[in-house]
């Protein structure tokens, strides 16, 4: 296990980058705490795999350093970093049995045969392949081969870090849940530093202690699932986390009030805002009204998704979403919306700002 430090890290695939836009990974400084589970979350092409490959040693960054427990490993080969990495598509030895595939990294380190047998049996059960341990990998399905790859990553108890690059892409949905559960148990049992790359917010939020949200090559927020939901540091986080994502309202902000679609809204705190100003409110914090005492809104449709309903409304030509809890009435004469005060976030040029006295966002 190791603390991983990213010091002034950035990377460009161009030989002579000139502007920030030339960097696939923009400057990053962060300590990844020893023993925590992190998820790198973002859309395809945002820099997640670039960052993971720099940490693993498959890629040397254009600038900055990578340190494991304060030791500079920036140019050290992957083999010298004592990590295990599982890739998106399965990497297995077809001529070996499942057992031999799982034992391979342990045999390479000269581990005692009895200990190898114990660990392989244990991991075979974790990936639900006990009955296939003596079967050749050739001919197995893609999801079975990916479980072997996961098992090879999970079988070592002495690694500095376990790195997963979208490892459940080819796994069927039920098995995804089972394997995420097993990965969390592995983390709980052994306290490995784990970094898990995914574009799936459910995977990220259920797996990680801390989620690292990336957008356009930049880390825009690192936080717990609760922090990402309640206080998105960037409008992308609000949009990307949650289903539906956060509503954004263009607003004119003047101290403790904002004007949205011609209606004045109390912000519950004083703000100093200059630039493109927006109010972000998640659907869970939108309140429906029919007395006209709020921002004018018209219901467009209602979607029943079982445990709640999603109410789609038109506000000044923009579609926004509200959540109506199961059993909550939605009046047919709804004509306005208001915000629950605890759900209001203020953004300037896409970044959240704090109210006076609130402290850092």
TrEMBL record:
Keywords: ATP-binding, Cell membrane, Membrane, Nucleotide-binding, Transport
GO MF: ABC-type ferric iron transporter activity; ATP binding; ATP hydrolysis activity
Residue intervals of the ABC transporter domain: 4-241
Gene Ontology CC: one annotated term: ATP-binding cassette (ABC) transporter complex, substrate-binding subunit-containing
Family, as annotated: Belongs to the ABC transporter superfamily.
Keyword Cytoplasm in annotation: no
Lineage per the UniProt record: Bacteria, Pseudomonadati, Pseudomonadota, Alphaproteobacteria, Rhodobacterales
Pfam families reported in the protein's UniProt record: ABC_tran (PF00005), TOBE_2 (PF08402)
Stated name of the protein: Glycerol transport system ATP-binding protein
Gene3D superfamilies, A to Z: 2.40.50.100, Nucleic acid-binding proteins, P-loop containing nucleotide triphosphate hydrolases
UniProt superkingdom: Bacteria
